[in-house]
Design brief:
Elements (H helix, E strand, L loop, with lengths): L1 H17 L13 H9 L16 H21 L6 H42 L6 H51 L4 H6 L2 H11 L1 H9 L2 H20 L3 H45 L1 H7 L2 H50 L6 H43 L30 E5 L6 H9 L15 E4 L8 E2 H6 L6 H10 L3 H6 L7 E2 L8 H14 L4 E5 L7 H15 L5 E4 L11 E6 L2 E6 L1 H7 L3 H4 L73 H11 L2 H20 L3 H36 L3 H5 L2 H43 L4 H31 L2 H12 L1 H6 L3 H36 L2 H27 L23 E8 L9 E8 L4 E6 L5 H9 L5 E6 L2 E2 L5 H5 L2 E4 L8 E2 H5 L7 H10 L3 H5 L8 E2 L8 H15 L3 E5 L7 H14 L4 E5 L3 H4 L4 E6 L2 E6 L1 H4 L6 H7 L3 H19 L1
Parallel strand pairs: 1-6, 1-7, 2-5, 5-6, 11-18, 11-19, 14-17, 17-18
Antiparallel strand pairs: 3-4, 7-8, 9-10, 9-12, 12-13, 15-16, 19-20
């Protein structure tokens, strides 16, 4: 019933608001049903009112975008920089200017009310019971005071509602424009910005519009009101008023100076915040690598250093805020003291009426001149910096799509001359860094050409090298905005070997993919990626190495059934390192160092004698198997077993076998571990005193906090006394500055605790929490903690103590005043409790609905090329707008419920109680961020990095590894993915590890590195790994990971973050991995700053950097996790030689992606469904004809199988001799 009741209310609410008159205080009654429901149960997203049409993200964004586009065009003609400030003013000045009338009327009432009050007091001073006319006039003044109070209450809240809504509109419109721009950024522009900077623009910079709109009108109202007050004061007390106004006039230029300083600090703070969020984004994305390298301390130092610089600027800004606030609270004391000192010295006699009028007028103008006016200066200064930063981003280069054959300019990419005809398959091969992916980028228009013409006739579609999926169902990832055609969809699933997976997954193709594809294995992501392209039914297909993430059998199925099957009548460009498929290509293009060195058919190139022949083995004796019916392809099954799709760094899923539905069911082994992104947690109930204690204790010790309490009490006592003006000033400034110091330190401490907690939490946390959710904590929530919460706390404490002081002084003179105060206090407490039940839920909803905005941005930037290739920008923009609208629903309710509360307070109690309650409200809402924040400082922690039990300095000396009855699961309630594992890896032994997808290969490594805690015993040189610290364990093992991760920073930092090696060591290792020449060509060589995530290196080159890291560590144990998936066979061979030479004395465990790279291992471990199926010398295993290894080798084709058998035999002979 509750739900039904609310939904009907929602319909009424929307209908009511859309038809309400602008001046009618419509926020008073329509929220009542929502409060009733909020009081009975927790509010959910479904309970929120639909966003009003005029507040919709698309409508607002496109309106501002039109103004911006016009300004850019006009500026280009006039040869000047476009002005974003001018655009905002043009778009919103009319609606915002009208609100200035509210401010003007409100401030006029504030000035007139003391005059009415003064006249009323004069009536009592000259009281004559027989003077009826004077009594009637006094009634008129009393009515004037009443009407003023009512008018002030209504106008004040109506004004605040409308200006905050105006700020929301500008913010929403700007976010729309920023995201739209992000979808259009060119490759050059992406190098000039980072995900961190864009997140910061969306989280912190745009919030300045919410703040500046509140105070902006006071820039012109303040001076006007000051002039009017001077006139009235001159009339009341003569020229003495000038002494008091002189103090006020001195404060105004001082605030302007403060404003400039705010602007400077804000600019520097924003740059540091960009850097911190960018680093956080890389940490969250690459957390597995950071943990396995034991680099947590290095990144902690890096983030803490940036945060220290950021907080130093925030502290200076906070001190300025403290001075502003202190000047507001002590100004009245100084002004009144100086005014009446001069008044008496001029020989005048003080009367109650004159004092009351003067004090009231000063109070009215003091609020504007010493609080609102400086706040306006401060917010305008900060907004100018944010506008400048947003403008700089909006002016970045955009991608130039070329559908025509017009020549285009800059960037050096492959000189290629080729015409791709319909129904042709063009294979592109070449070594790492040859420009294969860059060729596809040029065709897509992502990279501009230095010279020449790219002509594209028809629609393109693209499969990226590193599979990209977005949060949603598998079906939505494949359809990608297209209508569902069931027959076509089934054909695509079958061709992409996804049918069996859909049957095994709990919800089939409606299974939700988590952030970064956290519910799919690497192979499944690759096939979903391919299926998305195939379903689009485009004219031309660009396929960037889609076969490297699947095993040989599935790879062959994809090639036959999909690339040469469903797509056989389409022009296709296939970048590949899988040379066994080249015979089926109509044309082959060989690239080297960005040049086309050979081009032709398979036969022509074999005869040409170019490098191409070195990349291939002669395969004449290999019998080409028969292709599938209707598939016109000659597929040679030799040379390479491609990478099996195991768990990627962002995944904790070991999914179904990478096989199609027609494969024998007996071959399918499946371990499914679902780790969908969990809904964001929302704490419920009241925010207890313990939370505030944690907040304050984070910033200072007990002694400092006691000093702070004492200072606050002394400041209020001396102010209440009235005679101690100097003491009031000193204590007022001291308490304000100390308060800000403590609270900014609290923010710093809580940030460090949260970051440490994030680094120490197990990797599963990152699998079930989207990047956007974590970045939200480190961007928007931190921003609130840094600036808004300290200001709100100080404001609340000062107003609260002031009111206590007023009540205490009044009660000491007239004790009966407590009679109305006590019932009013009871009513206030009841109303407050009723209000906070709903208000806290709304603020929590506002916080949780913000995370999807950042997650969507982060996901979009990862898949930018795919989105643009599929022309899906508009759809992703609409999704972003939908996320924004949902957040606007929560934000709008936050604004209106605040007004609901304030209006009722003004109706039931005196104005001072209203101010206190509203400050309390602000404080309460701010601490919702604090509760979210503290939650992240108390995450589950993995085992300690160091323990009391330390291994010997030279441990491990031999590299013996023993698994004894090891069971392993990724979380306590998840399925067991390694079962009763018993294995011994001997010292200096080279062991290959193979198995189908989901067999448990990567889980074995996770258990070894303790990414989750295994059951049973793992011994390294006789020492239990569970008894030593994680860093002591992880630093003694080297890993070359499946997904190469580079971090923003120099090449030196990426190789050696702790500065433990000399330049000579670094150059030597780069030479050994064939990267020396590449790095030498960089502008500053090893000191060159890499682009975000190392995107200016190819995937293969990034893999070589990871190999260099492993060589530098010189550990006794090396783990290679499918590390050569993205390199060509020749580079693979070089890497294998380097590994054999450099790690001759080490124990090496290699997860196989190409059987020829592990067939010469001392032993091979074959895993199946989390158990050891076979473990022996390769030659011995190849004699077992029903064994898994034998079957895998046979799938390679006769020639390759014979070659592998011969290699295995030679290894056995060598071992025996």
């Amino acid at each position: 019933m509750l739900k039904y009741g609310l939904k009907s209310v929602k319909k009424q609410g929307v209908h009511f608001l859309t038809k309400t008159n602008f001046l009618f205080p419509h926020f008073i009654s329509w929220l009542n049903p929502l409060f009733r429901i909020g009081y009975k149960r927790k509010l959910e997203e479904d309970d929120m009112y639909k966003v009003l049409p005029e507040d919709g993200s698309e409508r607002l964004g496109e309106q501002l975008q039109r103004y911006w586009d016009h300004e850019v065009q006009k500026a280009a003609k006039e040869l000047r920089d476009p002005s974003l400030s001018k655009v905002i003013i043009k778009c919103y000045w009319k609606s915002y200017a009208v609100l200035g009338i509210f401010t003007l009327i409100e401030e006029v009432i504030k000035v007139v009310q003391p005059v009415f009050l003064g006249k009323l007091i004069q009536y009592f001073e000259n009281y004559n019971p027989n003077n009826t006319e004077a009594l009637n006039v006094a009634f008129g003044y009393a009515a004037g005071i009443s009407m003023s109070s009512i008018g002030l209450a209504l106008l004040h809240h109506l004004y605040f509602y409308h200006v905050q809504r105006s700020g929301m509109k500008i913010r929403v419109a700007m976010c729309h424009m920023i995201y739209k721009k992000a979808l259009c950024l060119s490759s050059t522009a992406m190098g000039q910005t980072t995900t961190g900077q864009i997140v910061n623009l969306l989280s912190n910079d745009v919030n300045r519009f919410d703040e500046v709109t509140i105070f902006l009108h006071f820039l012109w109202v303040g001076p006007l009101q000051a002039g009017a007050v001077i006139g009235l004061l001159w009339y009341e007390i003569g020229p003495s008023c000038l002494a008091g106004m002189a103090v006020l006039m001195f404060l105004m230029p001082l605030q302007t100076l403060f404003g400039r300083l705010f602007s400077s600090f804000r600019s520097k703070t924003a740059a540091f915040t960009d850097s911190r969020i960018r680093t956080m984004n890389e940490v969250v994305s690459g957390i597995r690598i950071i943990k396995m390298y034991a680099w947590e301390k290095s990144f902690s130092t890096l983030v803490n250093e940036v945060r220290r610089k950021e907080i130093s600027k925030i502290m200076k800004s906070s001190y300025l805020r403290g001075l502003n606030m202190a000047s507001f609270f002590v100004a009245s004391k100084i002004i009144v003291f100086i005014t009446f000192l001069v008044y008496v010295m001029l020989g005048n006699v003080i009367s109650a009426g004159r004092v009351f009028v003067a004090v009231s007028l000063y109070s009215a103008v003091r609020l504007t001149v010493t609080l609102f006016f400086p706040s306006a200066v401060e917010k305008v200064s900060e907004a100018k910096i944010s506008v400048r930063r947003i403008k700089k981003f909006l002016l970045l280069d955009e991608i130039m799509k070329h559908s025509s054959g017009q020549p285009v300019q800059p960037t050096e990419e492959p000189m290629v001359e080729h015409i791709l005809r319909s129904e042709q398959l063009l294979a592109v091969i070449g070594p790492v860094g040859a420009g294969k992916s860059s060729l596809l980028s040029s065709i897509l228009g992502e990279l501009p050409q230095e010279k020449g013409v790219v002509k594209v006739k028809g629609n393109l579609t693209y499969v990226c090298q590193q599979p990209w999926v977005f949060p949603g169902t598998i079906r939505s990832n494949i359809l990608f905005g297209k209508e569902l055609n069931q027959q076509k969809y089934e054909r695509v699933l079958k061709a992409c070997a996804l049918k069996r997976d859909m049957e095994l997954l709990p919800d089939g193709d409606l299974t939700v993919i988590g952030d970064r594809g956290a519910t799919l294995s690497g192979g499944q992501k690759a096939r979903v990626n391919l299926a998305r392209a195939v379903y689009q039914d485009a004219d031309i297909y660009l396929l960037d190495d889609p076969l490297s993430a699947v095993d040989a059998e599935v790879g062959r199925h994809l090639f036959e059934q999909c690339i040469c099957g469903l797509l056989r009548k389409k022009p296709r460009i296939l970048v590949t390192h899988q040379l066994q498929y080249l015979k089926a290509a109509h044309q082959i293009l060989v690239l080297k160092e960005g040049q086309a060195v050979a081009q032709g058919t398979y036969t022509e190139l074999q005869r040409s004698g170019l490098d191409f022949t070195l990349l291939l083995k002669k395969e004449e004796e290999d019998e080409a198997p028969e292709p599938a019916p209707g598939v016109p392809c000659r597929v040679s099954r030799s040379r390479t077993l491609s990478q099996t799709s195991v768990q990627s760094h962002a995944s904790s899923v070991h999914s179904a076998k990478d096989g199609a539905d027609q494969l024998p069911v007996g071959q399918v082994t499946c371990i499914i571990l679902l780790s969908c992104a969990l809904p964001e947690t929302r704490s419920t109930g009241t925010i207890g005193i313990s939370l505030y204690l944690k907040y304050f204790r984070a910033g200072a010790n007990i002694l400092v906090l006691l000093t702070l309490i004492l200072l606050n009490l002394l400041a209020q006592v001396v102010k209440a006394k009235g005679s101690l003006t100097v003491a009031t000033i000193i204590f007022g400034f001291l308490r304000s500055l100390l308060f800000f110091n403590v609270l900014v330190n609290s923010a710093q401490t809580l940030h460090n605790r949260m970051f440490t907690s994030i680094l120490r939490t197990p990797v599963r946390f990152f699998d079930i929490n989207p990047v956007g959710r974590i970045l939200n904590r480190f961007s928007k929530d931190i921003g609130q903690l840094d600036s808004m919460l300290p200001w709100t706390f100080v404001d609340f404490i000062q107003v609260f103590l002031q009111i206590l002081g007023v009540i205490a002084v009044a009660a000491s003179v007239i004790p009966w005043i407590l009679i109305p105060v006590i019932p009013l206090l009871i009513v206030f407490l009841v109303l407050r409790r009723y209000f906070l039940q709903t208000s806290r839920d709304i603020k929590r909803l506002e916080s949780t609905t913000r995370s999807p905005v950042f997650s969507h941005l982060s996901s979009s930037l990862q898949g930018l090329w795919t989105i643009r290739a599929f022309k899906a920008e508009q759809r992703f923009q609409q999704t972003f707008d939908a996320h924004q609208d949902l957040h606007s629903e929560a934000w709008f309710l936050f604004l209106t419920t605040s007004r609901w509360f304030a209006v009722r307070l003004d109706g039931i109690c005196a104005i001072f109680v209203s101010i206190t309650a509203f400050a309390c409200l602000l404080l309460r809402d701010g601490t919702v961020q604090l509760s979210c924040f503290v939650e992240y400082t108390e995450l589950e922690s993995e085992a300690p990095w160091e323990t009391e039990k330390k291994p010997p300095p030279d441990w491990p000396r031999h590299g013996n590894i023993t698994f004894d009855q090891v069971n392993f699961a990724y979380n306590s309630d998840g399925p067991v993915v390694l079962k009763s594992m018993n294995a011994v890896f001997r010292s200096k032994e080279k062991v290959g590890i193979v198995g189908r997808t989901g067999a448990g290969k990567s889980s074995l490594i996770s258990a070894l590195f303790r990414l989750a805690e295994p059951e049973g015993t793992i011994l390294i040189d006789g020492m239990k790994t569970s008894e030593i610290g994680l860093h002591d364990l992880r630093q003694k093992m080297s890993i070359i990971p499946q997904d190469p991760v580079l971090f923003t920073g120099t090449m030196r930092k990426n190789l050696d973050p702790f500065n433990q090696h000399t330049d000579e060591d670094l150059w030597n290792v780069l030479d050994e991995v064939q990267l020396k020449a590449v790095v030498e060509e960089l502008p500053n060589k090893m000191e060159t700053e890499l682009a975000e995530s190392g995107s200016n290196f190819s995937v293969g080159q990034r893999q070589l950097v990871c190999l260099a890291r492993a060589i530098l560590r010189k550990n006794c144990i090396l783990i290679i996790d499918e590390a050569t998936a993205n390199v060509d066979p020749r580079t693979d061979e070089l890497i294998q030689k380097t590994i054999r030479a450099k790690f001759k004395e080490c124990t090496v465990l290699t997860i196989a992606h190409r059987l020829n790279t592990i067939i010469d291992s001392d032993r091979i471990l074959v895993l199946d469904a989390g158990r050891i199926h076979e473990y022996d010398e390769p030659y011995v295993l190849l004699q077992i004809q029903d064994g898994l290894l034998y079957k895998m080798v046979q799938q390679m084709g006769k020639a390759e199988a014979a070659s592998l058998l011969q290699t295995a035999k030679m290894v056995t002979i060598c071992m025996q001799t």
